[in-house]
């Protein structure tokens, strides 16, 4: 399983015989997002490894997208990183999504909390980031 923790995400796994990196060898991946990537933990004096510095772990399978999903992904990526639109096409870049099968939240002592994909997708997003000036 692939494990990474940064917002600029590249999904890879290694072919030990050629030392080349391919997602095709195993499409299973985990993605960790943490408040340590913001100023929140530093402002509150939390060690980035403390459970008080909340993290969410998503795991599932990586799937190539096309059609309207690909158009949406391109717009989202290029709006944040416009220079990427001019990267060489012959490098074989493609857009993918994580088909989430498991979600764990570590936000306090006592272990992780499990959230089902159904619970996750049923929540109506709110603009907490805009309301919370503490982030």
Automatic annotation (TrEMBL):
SUPFAM superfamilies: FMN-binding split barrel. Keywords: Membrane, Transmembrane, Transmembrane helix. This is Cellular repressor of E1A stimulateds 1. Residues 12-122 form the CREG-like beta-barrel domain. The keyword Membrane applies. It comes from the Eukaryota. The chain crosses the membrane at residues 6-23. One of its GO terms (cellular component) is extracellular space.
